[in-house]
Design goal:
Layout (H helix, E strand, L loop, with lengths): L4 H17 L3 H15 L4 E8 L4 E8 L10 E3 L3 H9 L3 E3 L21 E9 L2 E10 L7 H25 L20 E3 L1 E4 L2 E9 L4 H5 L9 H23 L3 H16 L1 H12 L4 H18 L3 H21 L12 E5 L4 H9 L4 E4 L5 H10 L4 E3 L13 E5 L4 E4 L3 H16 L3 H4 L4 E2 L5 E8 L5 H6 L5 E5 L1 H5 L7 H15 L4 E4 L26 H7 L1 H14 L6 E4 L5 H21 L9 E5 L2 H5 L1 H7 L2 E4 L1 H9 L17 H16 L3 E4 L10 H6 L4 E4 L4 H8 L4 H13 L3 H7 L3
Parallel strand pairs: 9-10, 10-11, 11-12, 16-17, 16-23, 17-18, 18-19, 19-20, 20-21, 21-22
Antiparallel strand pairs: 1-2, 1-6, 2-3, 4-5, 5-6, 7-14, 8-12, 9-13, 13-14, 15-16
This protein binds phosphoenolpyruvate and magnesium ion (MG).
Phosphoenolpyruvate (PEP) binds next to strand 17 and helix 23.
Length: 749
Amino acid sequence: MNHDHSKLICDISELTALFTDTGNLDSLLQKIVEMIALHMSADVCSIYLYYENTNELLLKATRGLAPDSVGKVRLKLGEGLTGKALMELRPVCEGDASANPAFRHFTGIGEEKFCSFLAVPILRGQSRIGAMTLQSEKKNYFTPEHVNIFRAVTSQLANTIEMAKLLMSLEQPAAVEKTVVAAQSALKFIKGRSGAEGFAIGEGVVVALPTLESLAMNGVHKTLTLKDLHAAVLETENQLKSLQQAIETKLFDVASLIFSAQILMLKDQAMLGAMEDLVNNGVSPQDAVREVVTSYVARFNRMTNAFLREKQFDVIDVGRRLMENLTGKHDREDQYARKIVIARELLPSDALKLSSQGVLGIVILSGGVTSHVAVLARSINIPLIVAEERGLLNIPAGTMILLDGEQGNIYVNPADDVVKTFKEKETARKDAGNIAAQVKVKTFTRDGAAVTLMANINLLGDLAVAKEYKAEGVGLYRTEFPFIVRSDFPTEEEQYVIYAKLVETMKGLPITFRTLDVGGDKILSYYDNVKEPNPFLGLRSIRFSLRHKDIFVQQVRAILRAGAISPVQLMFPMISSLDEFHAARTVVVECMEQLEKDGIPHMALPQIGVMIELPSAVEMADDLAREAAFFSVGTNDLIQYMLAVDRTNQNVADLYVPHHPSVLRALKRIADAALKYDRSISVCGDMAHDTRYVSFLIGIGIRSFSLDARYLPRIQERLAAIDLVSAQRFAARLLAMDGLAAIEKELAL
Ligand code: PEP
Ligand code: MG
């Protein structure tokens, strides 16, 4: 076996490159087994795929066993050593397999001469995808090092193999759902919700998804042939690749997560073959594309598993692009330039494409993926409003639309004075754009107390503003966003690539990784959770991680590995008790030990902190301060849970009051506990970027803020006007008050 670790990494990349370079999925799996057998110096390497409906593993590719056993050898989950590995979700390694009573012998596949046996499950988050096996003629051949490397390779390939499995399993056509168009209305002003701030004015253009039907009939003036279909496939592939490259520099994490799946889909021989068959039987290429794509969409749509269902959007996306290239509608790349796009809903990849085309603003009607798109829009600086007015979908092309992303307001054919006011506001905002030059590297109060200003990062694209405004580090990296923008759980390897990029970009500045904080409004579309009546009180945040240890472990390992580049801090969201903190910390320690055993580079045990976001954590603040390395106060959730006000519910928005006496007093208790145990404490919720609360927070002893970097200059400016003694007196006055009216008067609200 090749013992050079870097060589292994190169080979893994080579393997994943096959992901895009192979047209046939069977041959992709075959290439994988050939390459691994060679690399691991094994006589046999095989891939088995697992089918939940039959509870069976099926041999899909082998190097070393009889080639005609592919597609024939079947094992029940738990049957044989391979079935056992997958059932128990752990590697099974035998020096003499036939001596193990669990060994299952198949005649005619040429297995007799192989003694040593190693099986590793292929897992995707929580789901079983299949298993990979190695065999050798030599007894006791596989060492713990083989096991570790084989596991690493398997985990790296899980995504690719799963996609291959998915595409292979697809069957026959079904009807496609037609888009329902809403009734037109005379619209002037629409109140929506701001998804991403900013102002934009331009011609509105309605985007309807999916558009395969209309595309098939669009702009074709000649009879198309199989050659045209092949040309369109090639063009589509090239477009996807260049789109991926173009976005990669700006949105590394998103691009690498979204487009690779689409490229593989396009190269799927079964899908393309079905189209070719239809064309060879006299169907026009555009009808063939429509029929095959819609059958795939319908098939995915029927799936009960949310992850599989979500795949339909990738198919739609690829299908649309293919159809456009086929029918010669080549104006796609700039048709939305300088326009305001209105859509029922958009996919994250749509938002990225629109961004690369220079779209000015986006309006979406409430839909399943809106939150993903809003997050993306913020990161790529495109104003976005979520509005429920269906009439917007019937706005005639060319209608002027003004978006006020601060307020969430939409003006249709705005009056001249409205446009003038907004343009003036925009000019003022741009003038303030030179602000970066005035931002100082270090922040001080008027009387010289140092305050640390760090950035909250959702997607790596946010780092640009953080750097521009000289953030002293990342106080909160919301790791869930790479999970949210894609359509399945990212593997350890995929997460590692993103985390490593973050660490490299920050060049040694402090970074605090918050472990996965899903649930509540951060829904993973591919995670089939039971429908929770109160998601904010449900399986959220650290509860989710502790319940799904495998997902948690993969994330922690990826973080610890990225920390080998430069050490990072780690914190857990929504901690409610010391026990929960201990349980989460134990996982980190176990991951460290495992990485150590595996010989994988990783950082030393990081500083581990807690987010204080729950009333229970406030009550336990002293105990948590004693045990944890630092506190980070998530005021968004703290307010929500202290006051029992859903932070996303417009109906009770007026009751969501950061300066409620109970919240102010809780903040004081949290700060006191941290200071008592000499722990650092930072505020990372939205209160940290509200200039009105800066004095209070300084007054109770907070010296570190982590905020959306766009707000950094104004907070730095505010701090420069504050002195400690006045801030302490101000905080004391507020803390002594018991009613909102008095507090609001003091805060000049
Ligand atoms: C918070 O709750 O204040 C916080 C920073 O976490 P999030 O907004 O991501 O829930
Ligand atoms: Mg929170």
